[in-house]
Design goal:
alpha+beta, 2 domains, two-stranded antiparallel sheet, 9 helices, 11 strands, 23% strand, elongated
Length: 280
């Protein structure tokens, strides 16, 4: 009996190509699934990093719509109880002259953000990703029906931003005088964030909202949700395909050895023993 079992076990390992195909199918499915997980995780982390890079150390962020909100809200919010500081911002997507590309330009308080190089009028900093110009070159932007030129002051590491300038330059040169569309609010130590948020919300006009920075990080991942779901489905299909390959190979192996299994049953091998042979 022992010798016959050894022969049958040896026979079960003859079709190595089929077994290798099964292992390869499962390995590819697992590798694709893990790769999709890494891609999704990296995409969400990059979006969250971009939000954090824009908001800095802020606890709350005030956001306006396309029209923004009057900059008179800035000192009013900065004086509220529980507010340690407020940093104004103006974000705009401007077209590049002579190109179909757009560039995201953000105006900041150069003094508060310690960017003295931006205090010079018409000065702009470019990110490495958008750096097709060198220091001293002119960046030509299309604003409405006219072209605006800004001088490149350098190339710096900017997360989630393509161009940075002083907020006064952004308001003046991009025809947004007296307007903001972002305000980063930092709270005093021990301040009740929800209470401060409600005080700020009471001052805001329609279409302007205030939210914790963490909520904005979560919301930033919503536009890519469909893309990430599609990748997850692709990974599941790959895993299912690998499992189907294994099942097909195993079913073919069992059908091929049906006579051997019947002989073993006649010779006294129990059902459990046959099952063990099938699973080997």
């Amino acid at each position: 009996m022992g010798g016959m079992l050894r022969l049958l076990l040896l026979g079960s390992h003859r079709p190595r190509g089929r077994a290798l195909l099964s292992v390869l199918g499962i390995a590819l499915g697992v590798a694709l699934g893990y790769g999709v997980y890494l891609v999704n995780r990296a995409a969400v982390d990059e979006l969250a990093a971009a939000v954090r890079g824009l908001a800095g150390e802020a606890d709350l962020e005030v956001r306006g719509g396309r029209g923004g909100f009057p900059d008179s809200l800035y000192p009013a919010i900065a004086r509220l109880p529980g507010v340690a500081s407020a940093s104004p911002g103006l974000e705009l997507d401007a077209g590049l002259a002579g190109s179909e590309r757009t560039i995201r330009l953000i105006g900041i308080d150069a003094l508060r953000e310690r960017r003295p190089e931006l205090l010079t009028p018409d000065k702009v900093l470019l990110s490495a990703a958008a750096a097709e110009l060198a220091k001293g070159d002119r960046l030509r932007l299309v604003v409405g029906h006219r072209t605006v030129e800004l001088q490149v002051g350098g190339v710096v590491d900017l997360k989630g931003v393509e161009a940075l300038t002083d907020i006064a330059t952004a308001q003046w040169r991009l025809e947004r005088l007296g307007q903001l569309n972002r305000l980063d609010v930092r709270l005093k130590r021990g301040a009740d964030r929800e209470a401060v948020r409600l005080r700020i919300a009471a001052l805001l006009p329609p279409g302007v909202h205030v939210a914790p920075v963490q909520a904005l990080e979560q919301a930033s991942s919503y536009p890519s949700r469909a893309y990430r779901v599609n990748l997850d489905v692709l990974a599941m299909v790959a895993l299912f395909t690998g499992g189907f390959l294994v099942f097909s190979a195993q079913a073919l192996q069992v059908a091929r050895r049906r006579g051997e299994h019947a002989l073993l049953r006649v010779l006294g091998l129990r059902r459990r023993g046959v099952l063990q042979l099938v699973l080997l």
